[in-house]
Design a protein that fits this description.
The complex is a heterodimer of chains A (98) and B (492). With 98 residues, chain A is mainly α. Chain A has 3 helices and 2 strands, in the order αααββ. The longest helix of chain A is centred in the first third of the chain and has 18 residues. Chain B has one domain: Alpha-Beta Complex (Amidase signature (AS) enzymes), CATH 3.90.1300.10. In chain B, helix 4 links the parallel strand 2 and strand 3. Classes of the chains: A mainly alpha (98), B alpha/beta (492). At the A-B interface, helix 1 and helix 2 of A face helix 9, helix 10, helix 11, helix 12 and helix 13 of B.
């Protein structure tokens, strides 16, 4: 076993996912077999090999700093599941002492 | 009247120009076919009939006024992954149900600029994660060649609709084979261009260093026409290659004398179905008869590609999908605080495979495992790229099968994610290396299921691939549309 249920629960928390108990069981078993398969990479010596994050050379692209029209607020918030006026509405983030 | 379904876009365009047919008639023809056949194929998530007919009418007016456009009046099907202003875009996920983008993806804008008609949104694996389209949260698409089988994925709806003649052509996306594999399993042409050749602006992101957009068509000529429309630099995508795209239709009809074709020995090992091997051998012989020569090459790190890919793509997916937080768009479940709201929203909104990949991706990026998995995979990716660099020193294109097997049965691999991942073994290395890859139909197996030939090119060498594919297609005539979906004439 590479990972147990506790690791899956912890990682699901990091990924902001609630899981049902049966899902935790299932993912623990499946992720173990997938991670075992991924360990085949350990057979390769990659000492001194550069990492590739993009297959083609990607340069930092700059543009002139010019003011121009952007999305209207009404368009940017049109899909919000909850809003107040033109603002996104979210549950309290900072706890208030009673 | 010749059969519209056997024509190229260029031929249909000519009929439209000569006013022998109108775009409204053409659009109605495809809408009728969708109504007649898609009940059993389930390739479309949503048909946008009214919008299609409105743009078709506008196209007819433009044509009457002498207007032109590479796709003027041509009805296409669109994978449900491109932001399209005013049109619901779901990525086949419950979490995006009802999302109506306020802007167009660059690809959609380019199609619009050329006058296309939007028939509807095509099914896919949720967030393009899958190889069978069974991970759609809405419906299971069937392979038009055998309705008990999967169409491949993730662009399964695009490939199935194109194969069954439910659109003239379609566009898909390919992160690990999601254009080429379904094109292969449904017997149509699919092109994954070089990474950066087509702008990803407005594409719902899965794995940003691997995702690429490309056409799925019934013939190579249409692939060239579609590439002409979508390829080219876009300032809105910082990974877009700042070079103009050539005219891909100029490649059609040129010979391939002297072309050097690399055959990687690592792709012709155990696990390949006998009929796939047989058609590969016949295809290589065909290229030789056309004046190409065959070079044996080696891609020694092929066996590590699937593991490398599933570390990198899940890592990128886990961060890309962080944006689905129940705040800006899509589904929102209530929770006692914001973290609880995030968790419940994502629990309800994401399907099984998406959750599996978020967990896996979060794990390989997490403190203590980053070096062992993500960093290791990024280094192996360099070795896989180098394999191709070395191979292309001795050949011009590489030819392999797209998939070791033909279409498998619905449900066959759903309980075993690793088996599903391994079905992409021949397509994944191409994405890791950022190269262009293409699927071209090369025959049917003993069950009557399509087999696809993969052509891999050097970076930005799509024109040469189209040239080779066109020669191949002219010599190896393969049925493109299953008997059941053929029709003799267009209703007028």
């Amino acid at each position: 076993m590479k990972i147990d249920k506790g690791v899956v629960e912890y990682v699901a928390h990091l990924g902001r996912l609630a899981l049902e108990p049966h899902e935790i069981e299932l993912y623990t078993a499946q992720l173990n077999s997938i991670l075992e398969y991924m360990d085949t990479l350990n057979a390769l010596d990659t000492e001194g090999v550069e990492a590739t994050s993009h297959a083609i050379p990607v340069a930092c692209v700059l543009r002139d700093d010019q003011a121009k029209d952007s999305f209207a607020v009404v368009d940017s918030t049109m899909n919000a599941p909850q809003k107040i006026g033109s603002s996104f509405k979210v549950p309290p983030i900072i706890e208030v002492e009673e | 009247m010749e059969n519209i379904l056997d024509m190229t876009i260029m031929q249909v365009r000519e009929l439209l120009r000569k006013r022998e047919i109108s775009s409204v008639e053409l659009t109605n023809y495809f809408l009728e076919r969708i109504a007649k056949y898609d009940g059993e194929i389930s390739s479309y998530l949503r048909v946008t009939g009214e919008y299609a007919l409105k743009t078709a009418k506008e196209a007819d007016e433009k044509i009457a006024g002498g207007g032109t456009g590479q796709l003027l009046g041509i009805p296409l099907g669109i994978k449900d992954i491109y932001c399209t202003k005013g049109i619901e875009t779901t990525c086949a996920s419950q979490i995006l149900r009802g999302f109506v983008p306020p802007y167009d993806a660059t690809v959609i804008k380019r199609l619009k600029d050329e006058g296309y008609v939007h028939l509807g949104r095509l099914n896919m694996d949720e967030f393009a994660m899958g190889s069978s389209t069974e991970n759609s949260s809405f419906q299971t698409t069937k392979n038009p060649w055998d309705l008990s089988r999967i169409p491949g994925g993730s662009s399964g709806g695009s490939a199935a609709a194109t194969a069954a003649g439910l659109c003239i052509a379609s566009i898909g996306t390919d992160t690990g084979g999601s254009i080429r594999q379904p094109a292969s399993l449904c017997g149509v042409v699919g092109m994954k261009p070089t990474y950066g050749r087509v702008s990803r602006y407005g594409l719902v992101a899965f794995a940003s260093s691997l995702d690429q957009i490309g056409p799925i068509t019934r013939n190579v000529s249409d692939c060239a026409v579609m590439m002409n429309v979508i390829a080219g630099h876009d300032p809105m995508d910082s990974t877009s290659i700042p070079q103009p795209a050539p005219d891909y239709t100029a490649s059609l009809g040129k010979d391939i004398k002297g072309l050097k074709i690399g055959i990687p020995k690592e792709y012709f090992r155990d696990g390949m179905e006998a009929d796939v091997k047989k058609e590969m051998d016949a295809s290589i012989a065909l290229f030789e008869r056309q004046g190409a020569s065959v070079v044996d090459i080696s891609l020694p790190h092929t066996e590590y590609a699937v593991a490398t890919y599933y570390i990198i793509c899940t890592a990128e997916a886990s961060s890309n999908l962080a944006r689905y937080d129940g705040v800006k768009y899509g589904l929102r479940e209530s929770g006692k605080d914001i973290i609880d709201m995030y968790k419940k929203t994502r629990f309800k909104g994401f399907g099984k495979e998406v959750k599996r990949r978020i967990i896996l991706g979060t794990y390989v990026l997490s403190s203590g495992y980053y070096d062992a998995y993500y960093r290791k995979a990024s280094k192996v990716r360099t070795l896989i790229r180098k394999d191709f660099d070395d191979a292309f020193r001795t050949c011009d294109i590489i030819v392999t099968p797209v998939s070791p097997t033909t279409a498998f049965r619905i449900g066959e691999k759903m309980e075993d994610p690793l088996a599903m991942y391994l079905s992409d073994i021949f397509t994944i290395p191409v994405n890791l290396a950022g190269l262009p890859g293409m699927s071209v139909p090369c025959g049917l197996d003993n069950k009557g299921l399509p087999i696809g030939l993969q052509i891999i090119g050097k970076p930005l060498d799509e024109a040469l691939m189209i040239r080779a594919a066109y020669v191949f297609e002219a010599e190896r005539k393969v049925e493109k549309i299953p008997e059941r979906y053929k029709e003799k004439s267009v209703s007028r």
